[in-house]
């Protein structure tokens, strides 16, 4: 069984010891996969707010190979400083767990690394409801020194309830909650 509280960050590499049960997040996005339990939870939030009409899944599960490629491309296109801020080191990306998803507001141009996910409208509605369904905003502003990752309003992580609700209520990152 997957560990919904698995910690993956610059200090903790992801070691794929459990068999992953990955399925598409939605029939319209067959190539974006998450753990089955996370997909079911995400579907329930989206149903509540009719989210799939306005919100796009940008990136879900990534293989180590894919993370290596994204990292290398970002280094080449954006340089080391940007990459260190917004792209996890291969082997240290939450996306490898199948429990993390980047979401973007549906618009003509979507930035793969930094999709728009504003603190208003449908995106904010998702953000507020997410903890009741097991999701947290993983990299909040003001917690960069704890997470080691820049503020990412678009990156959500499935930790399951009641953990998500406690973390949201107390304003804790996964690192702080586990400590």
Description:
This protein has helices at about 35-50, 65-85, 120-130, 145, 165-170, 175-179; strands at about 20-25, 35, 55-60, 100-105, 135-140, 150-160. The chain is of the alpha+beta class. Strands 3-4-6-5 form a four-stranded antiparallel sheet. It has a two-stranded antiparallel sheet with strand order 1-2. The mean pLDDT is about 95. It is about 35% helix and about 15% strand.
Short description:
The protein has 179 residues and is α+β, with helices and mostly antiparallel strands. It is 35% helix and 16% strand.
Largest beta-sheet characterization: 4 strands, antiparallel
Number-wise, the strands total 6
What is the topology, as strand order, of the major beta sheet? 3-4-6-5
Total helix count? 6
Which structural category do the helix and sheet elements fall into? Answer: alpha+beta
What is the molecular shape?
globular
Order of helices and strands: EEHEHEHEHEHH
Tell me the distance between the termini: 22 Å
Strand content of the residues, in percent? Answer: 15-25%
Q: What is the mean predicted local confidence, pLDDT?
A: 95
Radius of gyration: 15 Å
Percent helix among the residues? 25-40%
> Spans of 5+ residues with little confidence (pLDDT < 50)?
none
List keywords for this structure.
179 residues; alpha+beta; four-stranded antiparallel beta sheet; two-stranded antiparallel ribbon; 6 helices; 16% strand
Strands, helices and their partners?
Layout: E1 22-24, E2 33-35, H1 36-49, E3 55-59, H2 64-86, E4 100-105, H3 121-129, E5 135-139, H4 144-147, E6 152-158, H5 163-170, H6 174-178
């Amino acid at each position: 069984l997957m560990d919904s509280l698995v910690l993956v960050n610059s200090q903790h590499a992801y070691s794929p010891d459990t068999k992953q049960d990955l399925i598409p997040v939605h029939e319209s996005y067959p190539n974006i996969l998450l753990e089955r339990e996370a997909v079911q939870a995400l579907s329930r939030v989206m149903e509540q707010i009719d989210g799939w009409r306005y919100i796009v899944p940008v990136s879900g599960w990534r293989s180590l190979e894919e993370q290596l490629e994204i990292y290398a491309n970002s280094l080449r296109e954006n340089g080391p400083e940007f990459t260190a801020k917004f792209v996890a080191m291969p082997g240290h990306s939450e996306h490898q767990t199948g429990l993390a998803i980047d979401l973007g507001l549906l618009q003509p141009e979507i930035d793969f690394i930094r999709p728009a996910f504003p603190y208003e409208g449908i995106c904010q509605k998702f953000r507020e409801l997410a903890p009741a369904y097991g999701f947290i905003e993983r990299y909040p502003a003001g917690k960069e020194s704890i997470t080691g990752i820049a503020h990412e309003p678009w990156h959500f992580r499935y930790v399951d309830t009641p953990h998500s609700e406690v973390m949201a209520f107390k304003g804790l990152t996964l690192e702080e909650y586990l400590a």
